[in-house]
């Protein structure tokens, strides 16, 4: 901060390793890193659901191997040998699953690229890929392979040969695992619903300006002629020019002065030059004072937003002295706050001023139904005025949606993963229920002979 007009501002330089820039940009928006962490957690949840399925189905169906285990124990097989055999079977099952998983990864890469807008790349020649695959295999083996092997090896050989054991391990454990499994699935479903609600909030939230049916393009120093020619088109309801668009304000400055400003106070304010039609054309509310009049005297006037008034501490700002951009003038109005960045960030203090020479952007509001006619008329004028350059335009609402592209991508990914979680959980429950039903075939037969209806049997089997 300078203590006099001749003293220069002190600049501090911050270093950052290049490898960290992608996920942790210097401006502080760690959305990419957060998305990676979030998807890593989802991956662990999905893997855990699959492991719980494996544990439940392996221990439940182990009763079919009673006689095999009994014979092995009778002829001298020890617990370690049985555990080793079952662990090898688990490893082979996981390796086969891993091979199928690699195939699914390659098949789903186009789908992933379509959702995220990024080119997915998975190579078996990359050591990092093998590290991830091996870590996944090891996690699955430790969580799903060891417990069933230990439980099956503990069979009593006499009971096993007589097939008197009805189950392996406590039934309460399997029920608890099913509860945990569906709890994890519900967490993913809840996360999906929350993200969906956030996206609806973003779409429906009033950004402080009307962004519908407006397209913008760079007039290349022909903005005044474009505005005059476009205003006569019946498909166009309004045209305004500015230095930036409301969703892409690229300039800001700390060099503002006003009466009563504390010496140690520095406020960086966004700034945008606009014409007299900008505020009404975008539906921005004027809460105090007046708008620009469209004459040369506008260059001596400033309009602040509510946040700028609050941060500067100016009381009754209309008519007060204000200095910026090398111009000393007065504040003629205050507009209601509107978002020029993502709603993840707080509202910026903002200064609107008038400098027609810096108006490169032309903002055209169509009547909605005749947007195609408006674009055709604009392109025709473009070819007439600037034939050497292609006509490129952007709809304001599309640019606004781009501010929340990462949230939309996350929402789509969560929908996909939540669906997978529900499918895996239901498959596990279906398999376990089918096995329990098979075990109780004689009981079901006796109940039906004694008069039980299909509804009674269904309720009996579905109760747990």
Keywords:
single chain, 464 residues, alpha+beta, 8-stranded mixed β-sheet, 4-stranded antiparallel β-sheet, 12 strands, 52% helix, elongated, disordered N terminus
Annotate the secondary structure layout.
Layout: H1 31-61, H2 66-74, H3 79-116, H4 127-153, H5 157-162, H6 171-204, E1 214-218, H7 223-230, E2 236-242, E3 252-253, E4 256-258, E5 269-273, H8 278-281, E6 286-289, E7 301-305, H9 306-312, E8 321-324, E9 327-335, E10 350-353, E11 361-366, H10 371-385, E12 394-395, H11 396-402, H12 405-439, H13 441-449, H14 454-462
Parallel strand pairs: 5-10, 7-9
Antiparallel strand pairs: 1-11, 1-12, 2-11, 3-5, 4-8, 6-9, 7-10, 8-9
Tell me what you see in this structure.
The chain is an alpha+beta fold. 52% of the residues lie in helices and 12% in strands. It contains 14 helices and 12 strands. Helix 1 runs antiparallel to helix 6. The N and C termini lie far apart (70 Å). Mean pLDDT is 83; it is low at 1-5.
Largest sheet: 8 strands, mixed
Q: Give the termini separation.
A: 70 Å
Structural class: alpha+beta
Encode the helix/strand succession as letters: HHHHHHEHEEEEHEEHEEEEHEHHHH
Gist of the model:
Helices cover 52% and strands 12% of the residues.
């Amino acid at each position: 901060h300078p203590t006099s007009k001749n003293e220069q501002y002190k600049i501090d330089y911050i270093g950052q390793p290049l490898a960290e820039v992608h996920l942790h940009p210097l401006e502080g928006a760690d959305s990419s890193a957060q998305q990676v962490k979030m998807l890593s957690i989802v991956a662990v949840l999905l893997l855990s659901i699959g492991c719980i399925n494996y544990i439940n189905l392996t221990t439940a169906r182990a009763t079919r191997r009673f006689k095999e285990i009994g014979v092995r124990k009778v002829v001298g097989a020890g617990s370690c040998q049985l555990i080793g055999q079952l662990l090898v079977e688990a490893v082979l099952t996981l390796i086969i699953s891993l091979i199928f998983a690699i195939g699914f990864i390659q098949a789903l890469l186009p789908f992933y690229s379509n959702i995220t807008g990024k080119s997915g790349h998975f190579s078996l020649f990359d050591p990092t890929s093998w590290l991830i695959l091996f870590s996944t295999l090891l996690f699955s083996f430790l969580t799903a392979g060891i417990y069933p092997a230990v439980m099956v090896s503990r069979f009593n050989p006499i009971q096993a040969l007589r097939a008197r054991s009805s189950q392996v391990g406590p039934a309460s454990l399997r029920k608890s695992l099913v509860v945990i499994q569906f709890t994890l699935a519900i967490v993913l479903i809840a996360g999906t619903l929350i993200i969906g609600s956030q996206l609806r909030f973003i779409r429906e939230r009033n950004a402080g300006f009307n962004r519908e049916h407006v397209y913008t393009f760079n007039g290349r120093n022909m903005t005044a002629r474009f505005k005059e020619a476009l205003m006569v088109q019946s498909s166009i309801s309004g045209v305004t020019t500015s230095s930036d668009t409301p969703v892409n304000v690229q300039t800001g400055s700390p060099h503002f002065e006003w009466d009563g400003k504390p010496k140690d106070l520095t406020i960086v304010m966004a700034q945008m030059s606009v014409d007299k039609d900008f505020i009404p054309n975008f539906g921005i509310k004027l809460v105090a004072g007046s708008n620009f009049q469209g004459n040369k005297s506008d260059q001596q006037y400033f309009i602040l937003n509510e946040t700028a008034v609050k941060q500067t501490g100016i009381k009754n700002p209309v008519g007060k002295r204000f200095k910026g951009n090398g111009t000393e003038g007065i504040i003629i109005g205050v507009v209601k706050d509107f978002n020029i960045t993502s709603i993840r960030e707080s509202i910026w203090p903002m200064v609107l001023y008038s400098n027609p020479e810096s108006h490169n952007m032309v903002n055209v509001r169509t009547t909605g139904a005749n947007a195609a006619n408006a674009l055709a008329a604009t392109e025709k004028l473009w070819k007439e005025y600037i034939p050497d350059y292609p006509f490129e335009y952007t709809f304001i609402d599309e640019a606004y949606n781009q501010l929340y592209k990462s949230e939309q991508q996350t929402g789509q990914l969560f929908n996909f993963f939540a669906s997978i979680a529900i499918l895996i959980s239901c498959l596990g429950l279906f398999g376990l229920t089918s096995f329990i039903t098979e075990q109780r075939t004689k009981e079901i037969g006796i109940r039906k002979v004694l008069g039980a209806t299909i509804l009674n049997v269904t309720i009996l089997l579905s109760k747990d």
